[in-house]
């Protein structure tokens, strides 16, 4: 069957020639053949030069290119992509590591597969499609995972219902291969319950692994506040490092229950750890100078460019409150996972917060996502996690 062709307007071929994987709807001159969201298409320049093969979708980003070579998208294609991604994780010492059994295998554009996330939890691969094209390929991807991993793969769980809001498709989460109820996995020797069925994203925020490890260097004998704690990742690292006291705060009761479960799983006592179900901003206003170390790791304040200004103001207010309240000589770990808020915008918001708080603040670390969340050099938009570690005088 003939693959539909997307013909670009004159001059619009420069972006895919620089290997940027997105074709915007405004760059399209015409479409040859019938095409609907999720279909595979080939992209050509106005001079009929092949530029790439990708998935079409109605919207601003009309095509997400999965291959810049004119090749058949078959079983071998998916196996090759997954082998390549796994080889990077091998190089990072993540795939055969007795201390860490949690890592990201496929990071969308970062691994040349826009619209696809696969996280690996101690034998269970959790797949999340962010495009209809990837959703259509889930069975082929599952077979490729089985081929590449062999007996090391216990199950493949599809978590795409949250990332694809197409009610008419009636997308349901569920197992694509095998079956493995809640998973216990290791990160740097610490134990975590991974609830990929009920949890956010694929079940755990793997992208903070190295930043949690860094926090441990500052936690010994300190009082630590972990806000937006989710399942308590930063809290567990602080306790392991010998923090005097750790408090975890989240507006979700379920998140606090998961945190408590992970505290118990790692053998820490309730005397060392406290928690509160609360709105973080309201909680920060009443803590005064109790804490030596504060972690601000909020959910994305902006998922679209239109919300960017309000997001920047939100980061400013949140950081200003924490900077007002932290102890003299305190350490603040602060993050933004809003892709549309650039690193410079986020740093500017924290600068404005420091001015408002009237504190002398020094940046001691610039933080980002870890190496198993690679950022494609041709796709700068892939850098979504920004973080600063601040010393507050």
Keywords, separated by commas or semicolons:
single chain; 393 residues; alpha/beta; Archaeosine Trna-guanine Transglycosylase, Chain: A, domain 4; Transcription Regulator spoIIAA; Rossmann fold; 3 domains; 7-stranded mixed sheet; 6-stranded mixed sheet; 27% helix
Task: Provide an overview of this structure.
- The chain has 393 residues and is an alpha/beta fold.
- The chain has 3 domains: 5-67, Archaeosine Trna-guanine Transglycosylase, Chain: A, domain 4 (Roll), CATH 2.30.130; 75-188, Transcription Regulator spoIIAA (2-Layer Sandwich), CATH 3.30.750; 205-392, Rossmann fold.
- 27% of the residues lie in helices and 28% in strands.
- The strands form 4 sheets. Strands 16-15-14-17-18-20-19 form a 7-stranded mixed β-sheet, sandwiched between helices.
- Strand 15, helix 7 (253-265) and strand 16 form a beta-alpha-beta unit.
- Helix 2 packs across helix 4 (138-149), helix 5 (209-219) packs parallel to helix 6 (233-240) and helix 9 (308-325) packs across helix 10 (343-357).
- The chain starts with a strand and ends with a strand.
- The model has no long low-confidence stretch (mean pLDDT 95).
């Amino acid at each position: 069957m003939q693959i539909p062709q997307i013909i670009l307007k004159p001059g619009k071929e420069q972006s895919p020639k620089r290997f940027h994987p997105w074709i915007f709807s405004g760059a399209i001159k015409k479409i040859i053949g019938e095409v609907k969201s999720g279909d595979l298409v080939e992209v050509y320049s106005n001079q009929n030069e092949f530029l790439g093969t990708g998935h079409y979708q109605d919207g601003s980003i009309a095509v997400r290119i999965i291959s810049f070579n004119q090749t058949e998208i078959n079983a071998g294609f998916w196996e090759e992509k997954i082998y390549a991604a796994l080889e990077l994780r091998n190089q990072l010492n993540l795939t055969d590591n007795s201390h860490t059994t949690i890592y990201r295998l496929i990071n969308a554009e970062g691994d040349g597969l826009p619209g696809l996330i696969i996280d690996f939890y101690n034998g269970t691969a959790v797949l999340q499609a962010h495009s209809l094209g990837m959703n259509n390929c889930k069975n082929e991807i599952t077979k490729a995972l089985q081929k590449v991993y062999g007996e090391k793969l216990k199950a493949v769980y599809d978590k795409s219902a949250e990332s694809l809001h197409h009610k008419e498709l009636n997308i349901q989460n569920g197992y694509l291969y095998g079956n493995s109820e809640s998973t216990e996995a290791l990160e740097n020797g610490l134990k975590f319950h991974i609830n990929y069925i009920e949890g956010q994203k694929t079940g755990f925020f793997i992208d903070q692994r190295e930043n949690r490890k860094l926090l441990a260097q500052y936690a010994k004998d300190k009082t630590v506040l972990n806000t937006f704690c989710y399942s308590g990742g930063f809290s567990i690292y602080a306790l392991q490092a010998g923090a005097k006291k750790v408090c975890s705060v989240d507006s979700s009761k379920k998140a606090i229950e998961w945190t408590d479960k992970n505290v118990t799983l790692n053998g820490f006592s309730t005397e060392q750890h406290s928690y509160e179900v609360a709105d973080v901003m309201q909680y920060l206003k009443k803590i005064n100078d109790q804490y030596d170390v504060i972690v601000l790791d909020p959910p994305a304040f902006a998922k679209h460019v239109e919300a960017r200004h309000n997001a920047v103001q939100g980061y400013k207010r949140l950081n200003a409150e924490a900077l007002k309240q932290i102890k003299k000589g305190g350490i603040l770990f602060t993050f933004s996972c809003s892709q549309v808020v650039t690193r410079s915008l986020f740093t500017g918001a924290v600068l404005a917060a420091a001015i408002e708080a009237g504190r002398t603040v020094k940046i001691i670390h610039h933080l980002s996502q870890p190496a198993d969340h690679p950022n494609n050099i041709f796709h700068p938009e892939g850098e979504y996690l920004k973080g600063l570690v601040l010393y507050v005088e």
